[in-house]
Amino acid sequence: MSEHTVSAYEEELRVLAGKIAEMGGLAEILVADAVKALTRGDLALAKRVIPEDRRLDQMQREIEDAAILVIARRQPMASDLREVVSFLRIANDLERIGDLAKNIAKRVIAIDGQMISKKLTVGLDHMAEIALQQLNSVLDAYGNKDDALALEVRLGDDEIDALYTSLFRELLTYMMEDPRNISQCTHLLFCAKNLERIGDHATNVAETVHYVITGEMMDPDRPKADTTSLERVALPG
Amino acid sequence: MSEHTVSAYEEELRVLAGKIAEMGGLAEILVADAVKALTRGDLALAKRVIPEDRRLDQMQREIEDAAILVIARRQPMASDLREVVSFLRIANDLERIGDLAKNIAKRVIAIDGQMISKKLTVGLDHMAEIALQQLNSVLDAYGNKDDALALEVRLGDDEIDALYTSLFRELLTYMMEDPRNISQCTHLLFCAKNLERIGDHATNVAETVHYVITGEMMDPDRPKADTTSLERVALPG
């Protein structure tokens, strides 16, 4: 490639990386706002989150189109190709994080005005805090090509999984104690699961970052600490 | 492109389309087996489903690698490019369907041996049947480039959503009637949600088929009949 072509190519990559950063920032805001709406019972905020998800969908399509055009026109190889493929993968994960935030916001509307017990609020807030930290760190790891930070994010997912398992048990206990809690707690169970899945998507991004930097896949056998799908909860009485 | 190149290119597309069909077939089997394991309480079958999901993950990676190589080497344009992009998108949806089937299988182990009420089994079986029909139809629509069938699949998703909404209400009622049902019904709620999401992925594939054939996106404003995240269930007593 001539110098002129190389610099045009680098500019294309720079623009795409900028769009990923923008998408990441928007995804973070949607998750934070959805959880804030949930724990404060803020219906107006929940209603503002829901349509915002569309912007992430649109951005994903734009990134996909642009990345594929780059592959076709520039025929990048090796690490350059991995870089462009990472745009496709990360945009996909961020779009899904937006879906999960939107789903939390919809459930805020479902449990309209019902007070959530302080203890559950604390648990959800804590899960959301860790999930957002993970998302923030992995976007930093991506921006700075920081493999060590990406590995850290991946290991950190165990903490979210453990918090989810604990909240899952707590929510089941609440439901068993009083059937009037069942409807609300069911929505909170799905919200907690959504936060756990947001953590999984941050982990996916961490794996993509590792792949971009090293050309290698992370070991798929990472042990999972979310064991609730294998959980048998003791029944009262 | 020379005739020789064109035919090599067509052969690459043919191989990729074959891999998608193979992935689709495996995804169908995993969903069918996971649901069979659930409604029959067949632990051995559930344990066979769980590791099979890995094969779908592996196939997705292979399809992604091969499709990107085709884009870089052949620089397809217009409908050819859409065809190759569709491999990426559909492999992604099929991989996620595999994850959802695996999650159902894990929950079979969680509710180990507990009998599921006949009424709930019927509801789950019916949802699974429609979801599998949708998946099967959309894979046919893809294989035969049948836009009318793709549109039909997309419209059919409303039925799965409606079944999910109805099952969601039923499960909540069961939980309210007897707290001893809560643990099992929670897992069944997630299983039902997984089936509903499998339907969403079939819809995504339908949208990709429409895009391959026409070059246009389907209208994103399709009304959704899964309203459970907006649901306020009447509390007993």
Structure report:
Two copies of one chain form a homodimer. Chain A starts with a helix and ends in a 23-residue tail after the last helix. Chain A is mostly helical. The first copy, chain A, has six helices and no strands. The model of chain A is unreliable at 233-237 (pLDDT under 50). Chain A has helices at residues 3-40, 43-74, 78-110, 118-143, 147-177, 182-214. Helix content of chain A is 81%, strand content 0%. Chain A has a single domain (3-230), classed as Up-down Bundle (Methane Monooxygenase Hydroxylase, Chain G, domain 1). Chain A is elongated. Chains A and B meet through helix 2, helix 3, helix 5 and helix 6 of A and helix 2, helix 3, helix 5 and helix 6 of B.
Biggest beta-sheet profile of chain A: none
Strand content of chain A: under 5%
Oligomer: homodimer
Task: For the record, give the distance between the C-alpha atoms at the N and C termini of chain A, rounded to a whole number.
Answer: 74 Å
Within CATH, the superfamily of chain A carries the name Phosphate transport system protein phou homolog 2, domain 2
Number of domains of chain A: 1
Query: Remind me, CATH topology of chain A?
Result: Methane Monooxygenase Hydroxylase, Chain G, domain 1
InterPro entries (chains A, B): PhoU (IPR028366), PhoU-like_sf (IPR038078), PhoU_dom (IPR026022)
Family (chains A, B): Belongs to the PhoU family.
Function (chains A, B): Plays a role in the regulation of phosphate uptake.
Domain PhoU (chains A, B): 20-108, 125-209
